[in-house]
Amino acid sequence: MKLRDLLAGIPLEGVRLDLELEINSIAVNGRDHLPGALFLETPGCDLTCAQALERGAAAAVPAGRDPWGTLARVAENWFCRPGKRMTLIAVVGDEGELTAWLLRVMLEGMPHTRVGAITPDGVWIAGVELPGDERGAGPLHVQRLLRCMADEHCTHVVLQMDEAALERREFVGLRMSAVALTGPVRCRQTLCDLLEQSDTTVLNLDEKAWEDYGSIIPKHTFTYSENKARADLMARNLRLHPGHMEFEAVSIGHIQRIHLPVPGGFTLYHGLCALSCGVCLGLKWERMARVLRCVHGPKGRLEVLNVPAAYTVVQDRANTSRALEQLLTSVREFTAGRLICVLGCPQDTQQTVLTQLGGVVEQLADRIILTTDARPGENGMEAVAGVRSGMGGWRRQCAVEPDRRRAIGRALDQAGPGDVIVLTGQPDEREFVYSYVGTRHIRRETRSLTGK
What we know:
Elements: H1 3-6, E1 25-27, E2 37-40, H2 49-54, E3 59-61, H3 67-78, E4 87-92, H4 97-108, E5 115-119, E6 122-125, E7 128-129, H5 139-151, E8 156-161, H6 163-167, E9 178-181, H7 188-196, E10 201-204, E11 222-225, E12 233-240, E13 245-251, E14 254-260, H8 267-280, H9 285-292, E15 303-305, E16 312-316, H10 321-332, E17 339-345, H11 351-364, E18 367-372, H12 381-388, E19 397-400, H13 404-414, E20 420-424, H14 430-450
Parallel strand pairs: 1-2, 2-3, 4-8, 4-9, 5-8, 9-10, 10-11, 11-12, 16-20, 17-18, 17-20, 18-19
Antiparallel strand pairs: 5-6, 6-7, 12-13, 13-14, 15-16
Helix pairs in contact: 3-5, 4-8, 10-11, 11-12, 13-14
């Protein structure tokens, strides 16, 4: 591609380039292919423009006032603007994982749709998750993935944008059909730029933080709420169960009963947000309700493990005080007995975060078992000590078991009818729990038959 076409519509002040150069690729660091490439300097880059030219780059653009925006526009030109062929929906905020998941699965259940999704945790094209090495960060990766999705004839794409994605301005050049705001963001100017490139904004009316954002939030938005009648979509007659929730979605001229197989009170807002996006996209209520009835949340996100026991086991990756508070508060709503928390103390975490985790679990759990998320050969007791420093130690029973599986086994042995065990941390212990509970069940049946 000619450099002239690659830089079309991009103002570059004080940069002199031969616009007739033929460019064979785009490079943003020293690991990329440089001979014949256009090199763009971005924040944190391990290479300068002069070094890139010495190593064979055809041209180099230094970091200007908006390096990420420049990269996004160059990438859009390089991949021939793939986003213009699809309906794009942005889910904004660090807590938008479940909303993006529900929205993706709901769209996949609609007729005549092929759905792609780009999230910090994975990439999906037509229901198939790409391998880990296909995931990347930055506008160049986003445009490359959009190109793949357009070539696979995707009709809709869900983009989950956390704070890091917003800082990299991955949305530049993309026209959003809807932007769903799942929580406040730090960079308000970046949020304002994103909302200017969208047709509809979806907003939680119960989130008080939006009151401080003033003119950034468009006046014409689609709002949802748990109990505010002035919202465009409201939940009514909410019923919470250990494995699911039920509520009535009430909108202007329409009432639809929703069964969502994901537990927890705060999950209601993720369901309402996904439904609101569906309404803005013109989806049928009956079809959305039918699809959501069969949906399951992402693995490790308020996941109820199907164990043959009179207690409930919930697995979640919560590793911040806000996420842990939401998790334990939601679980408490359907806990008939005790709430037992096996807290995996996260490694490489600031002391203040560990202290906050200790304060939250000490207030909300009835029984606590602290363990580590350390990899084999690592010592995770410093993180455990950090969590314990945030606990008063006088209200709740607390035990320490460095071995994670022994800690989980200890919790399973202590649990009784009506109790809920919450497992937090990164490791996936699903198979271990099934095996442990199954072995206990077999032993219990054997004792009842033999009388021993």
